[in-house]
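Input record (one chain):
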Amino acid sequence: MLGPVILAASRSDRMRRLISAAPGTRQVVDRFIPGETVDDILPVVRDLTDRGLELTLDVVGEDITTPAQAAAARDAYLELVDRLKPLDLGARAEMSVKLSMFGQALDGGHDLALANVRPVVEAAAEIGTTVTLDAEDHTTLDSMFTIHDELRKDFPQTGCVIQAYLFRTEADARRLADGGSRVRLVKGAYKEPASVAHQQKHEIDKAYVRVLRILLEGEGYPMIGSHDPRLISITQELARRAGRKPDEYEFQMLYGIRGEEHLRLAAEGHRMRVYTAYGTDWYGYFMRRLAEKPANLRFFLRSMATQG
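The corresponding structure, as predicted from the sequence alone:
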C-alpha cells in the first residue's frame, strides 16, 4: 500500500525539497500540470475545447499561512476569469477552488474563505460559468458545505465535491441531490483515519457505486470524477436506468491521464470535462496524483532513472 506513504510524504518539507530537486521530476510534473501561468494555460484551454472537451481549471496551491497569501490566491482566480472572458466559452471552462487556498485554516478562516471566494464566484457568473468547491480532508468539510450552501443562495450553479471513501458521504450525497446541487464524486485522495473512511479499495469502490446511484437518481447534476473503466460503464448503465440524458451528467478526468478516453467519451456525445491544474505550488497536487495510481509512480521512477 504505497498510497498512504506517498500521501504522508506530501506533507513533508524534506520530501518536498528532495523531489523538487530530482532530475526526473519536471518531466512528470509537466504531464499533469501543463503550465505555471495563465499565459501557459490559455493555449491548453483553446486546444481542449477545440477538440470538444470541457475544462475545470485549478490554480494549485494549499500552504496558505497569512491573509495576504489568501488574498493573492483570490486574485489569481480573478485574473483567470478576466483572461477567460474574451474566449467566450461560458460553462465549458469552469473553475475549481480549494478553500484552504482562500484562508480556511487561518484564524477566522471560515469567514475569510467565504469573503475571498465570493468575488470569484461572482466574476465567474458574469462570464457565464461557475465554480466548484473542492473537498479536502474530513476536518474541513462542515465549513466547505456551509460555504457552498451560502453561495448557492445567490449562485445556485456553484458546485462541490464529495469523496466516496468517507463514511459520511452517502448522507451528504442525499442532501445535495435533494437540493439540486452540482456534485463531483471522487474516490478521495487524502490520508484519512479508519474511524472516518474506508481503507480498502474494494470497499471504496462499493461506496462509490452507492453514492453514484444516489446522485443519478436525485435532482442535482452529477459530475463523475473517475478514470476507472468499470465505474464509467456502471455510470452509463445507472444513468440509463435513471432516465438521464447524456447532457444531464458529465464525466471528469485529470489532465494527463487517459487522454484517448477523454476524446472517446466526447465523441460518443457525453460531456467530458478535463480537470486541468496550473501554477508554481504544484507539490501537494502532484503527490496526490502519484498516490492515486501506481502507474503514475512507476512513470515517475522511470523518468528519474533515465534522467539520473
